[in-house]
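Most newcomers find our protein records easier to grasp once they have seen one. Read left to right, the backbone structure tokens trace the chain's path through space. Nothing more is needed to start thinking about how sequence determines fold. An example says more than a description, so a record of this kind follows:
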Amino acid sequence: MSKKLFEPTQLGPTTLSNHIVMAPLTRSRALGNVPNELMAEYYRQRATAGLIITEGTSPSADGLGYARIPGMFNQEHVTNWQRITETVHHHGGHIFLQLMHAGRIGHSLNLPAGAEVLAPSAITAKGQMWTDEQQLLDHTAPREIRTDELARLRDEYVQAAKLSIEAGFDGVEVHSANGYLLSQFLNPHSNHRTDQYGGSVQNRARFVLEVARGVAEAIGPERTGIRLSPWGVDADMPHYPEMDETYAYLAEELQKIGLVYVHLVDHSSMGAPAVPAETVDTIRRLFTNTLILSGGYDAESAEEALQSGRADLVAFGKPFISNPDLVERLKTGAPLAPLNPDTLYTPGPEGYIDYPTADGQPAGTFSPSYQA
């Protein structure tokens, strides 16, 4: 019996070759925050996924909180990303750009001159951030975003989405999860605002919905998805009493906007609290377009999620790092290769494009003039 996981499916206007999504994975290979040929090879090797969602990519200079993450806010970014989208499409894949403004999760040493760490409120996140200049440092204290600046921030997302389509992407995923800027608005521990963007559940969700609506109006809701992490505790984001109410409200409003998908993250496989089944069921009931579930899946559990109707697509993250041929391995039952944690975020090709396929062969033959 053929498995649904490996059958073609539709995502809005896009026909995917299977139900497998490559989840966004920060890999920190974009020197100068510019995509490059090394990244093109990395995504080419993984183009057998039904859908690739890129690593978090900032819509503005202020959002580049991490070392060596890419941007999408100028023509150089467009030109270099276009090389990547063309490569993925040439090899039969489809690819969405994830728009991620890091907000308070960052350090000023990782930002270009003139940029600054911004957040809904001037509350410094606990923890540290890697900087190439001085290694690990405490997060920079953010500046609170003024109310009159929020339209500009929304428009940065909108412009980045337009540039993404210009660069050949099939769509974009708005990142409102994992403790970054948009999810910082949702959580009362990071949002102490007293204007119309703070206080109630509806107010804290306001900016997320303004961004989602603006992007959808600019490039079409059928090319706009969003990532959410209900019950997530990433990046100094404790739980709060209205959490389920917040995500039920978001699901209802995102359905009205008509986004093509909601991507729900569950990091319990990495030690975080599990997302309660009733939370997922509520979102599933209120948001009736495509639902992507992500977090610790294997071929068997992914198939069960699809067959039961709990998910329309299933995303795999870390397994794609060390298994460029993950789709084939899942199909044949071949063992998965472990990843090397020491090279997850280092510059250069090691631990990035040199993982072999299941038969021991190189996944690519790449020898660019890449300088780490």
User: Anything to note?
Assistant: Residues 322 and 338 are 6 Å apart (CA to CA). The longest strand covers residues 51-57. The radius of gyration is 19 Å.
